[in-house]
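Cross-posted from the bioinformatics board.
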Amino acid sequence: MAGKRFILGFILGVASIASSWFTGQTAQASCGAVTCFVVIGSQQQVPQAGLLTFNTIYNYTPMRLLDGTTGVIPAIDQHDQRMILDHHREIRTITQTATFDLNYGVTDRLGIQVTIPYLWRTHKHIDGLGEENGGRGELVPFKDNGIGDVTFTGKYNILPTLRSMIVAGFGVQVPTGNTEALDAAGHTMEAPGQLGRGQVGLIGSLYQTYELIPHRLNQFFYGSYRHTFRNNDGYQFGDEYNLNLGANGVPLESAPWLALTGQFTWRYLVHDNMSASLERSARPGDPGFPGDPIVLDPTILNRSVPNTGATYFAFSPGFQASLDGLIDSPLTKMSSVYFYAQLPIMRDSNNNLAQGTSYIFGFTRSFQLTQSGS
Amino acid sequence: MSRKKNYSQLAGVLLVAIFAVAVSGGLAWSMGSRVPVVGAPAEDFRLVDLEGKPQSLSQYRGKVVLVNFWATWCKPCTTEMPAMQATYDKLREKGFVVLAINELEDDAKVREHIKQHGHTFPVLMDRDNRVANQFGVFGLPVSVFIDEKGVVQEYIKGGLLTEQLILDVVAKIQKHEPMKAVSLR
């Protein structure tokens, strides 16, 4: 809790320092990649030296069952190290995330980034299949909000030119998110529903952009890989592979403040893994149904968690409006807003909840903290 | 394995393949960006001006040259251009020249901008970004002061040029005073 307060205090502190600094400074001194390229999502880039980019991103992500899937999945009891097959029926998860992203250019090629997510999560599932309520289980809602896992990233611009940029990044995700939240029945919520992963994660990334038509159209690629270690509850989140390919364009020369974007996203999640014994819910026909789960293997072993892991392919159209170009005011200098929707094209959710259409709003503002020059 | 999963994996492979092609294309066009060292000779270049005449850096040997990389869409660039024009007017007869190198824009647009603002210094067109890469330019504007012997004396990133700053730098170069070591990048 003290950690959360510290992080919130840190965010507010940086924001207020940056705001107060800005009121006494003049506008930017140069067009670096972040300020003058046609790009959306400047958090992937290395800002020019001395430039602090502050991104606030709101993300609404619903997850529901796909047609033809039942949503029956295992229960995860991380405290007692039990995995009980066919014990839950998933209904819905809605995650809202406000991400505060600070991106600073230490030099023109080296950048550091801190990403702080704040999440609101609501989840509904039927718990106790085979046990409660004649074996039909009971509805157990869950909700939690708080800071998720904070990521610290170092980035290096491998190819700095006017037209293109290749940025390699290495991030460390620290387990600042809660892993002990309780559901409405008073039990510890299962690990995948918690706000944090409970252990350090390592993220490697590569960002590439090239101006196909200078200052009018650029393509970009972003790829990342995350590996999270096993947490103290014996739960390990599966590795994540993420690829994005897209383009940003200024459709009207007379309105350079408006850029349109389109990108394809492919994400592959490996099965989660858990150190647990293996049980299954009682089924009709089992002696004593409805009743306690049946033990299949009492040995505590590292086991893949069925129904975790997913493949997701989506298209995200959107736009970015530069407030700087739209409104001539000191308050809008180096600021822009953006919005895009992520529309699923193909989803393989492994009989679990699948990500639906999600919406992302963002506000970006940059502050030149130190003047570039000779 | 389901057909849906096959399609999904195919989509991922396709994204990687398209990325590889894009990167290899981008690399071929834009490798070699190096910031020149202050005190070292500036590498020569040859570009055409707005009238289509070829111009080279070496033809200005014996003069102090301000090489300025710019574009019409770059506000800090256009903000400092009046100062460049003013010093060019003052010092052009005293061994000073401005070479404004435009990056990746079409002639008509640049010509219109130059005409509108009444600039008279030579404007060269770096159509393939080659000279910008040669001078390690990956943000605009960049100004490089080169002395009479063709040696880089100052490398300035960002829209910091004022008339006084240009006058001071040119005076120092012409007096052969040593430049700031901080310019080494």
